[in-house]
Amino acid sequence: MPEEFGKCNIVFKRFGDWVKAGIWQKLFDAAGGQPNMEYAMADATSVKVHRHGQGAGIKVRP
């Protein structure tokens, strides 16, 4: 664990305090809504495959 977080015991206690205070639940509720998939979509107009990724030059044995 990075030194910036402090000692393990302090981090463990802080985590437990956040659980008791409901902070983790609020974070998950805020992040867990319906995702906006507009930016996650990709199609052939925006993504090009390298010719080796298409199978160019691969010899198939019978």
Can you tell me about this structure?
The protein is mainly alpha-helical. Helices cover 37% and strands 0% of the residues. It has two helices and no strands. The longest helix has 14 residues, at 8-21. The radius of gyration is 24 Å and the shape is elongated. It starts with 7 loop residues before the first helix and ends in a 31-residue tail after the last helix. The model has no long low-confidence stretch (mean pLDDT 77).
Quick check: average pLDDT? 77
- Globally, the shape reads elongated
Number of strands: 0
Amount of beta strand: under 5%
Give unreliable regions as ranges: none
What is the CA-CA span between the terminal residues?
53 Å
Residues in helix, %: 25-40%
Order of helices and strands: HH
Which class of secondary structure composition applies to the elements? mainly alpha
Supply the number of helical segments.
2
Largest sheet: none
Rg over CA atoms? 24 Å
Short structural description:
It contains 2 helices and no strands. The protein is mainly alpha-helical and 62 residues long.
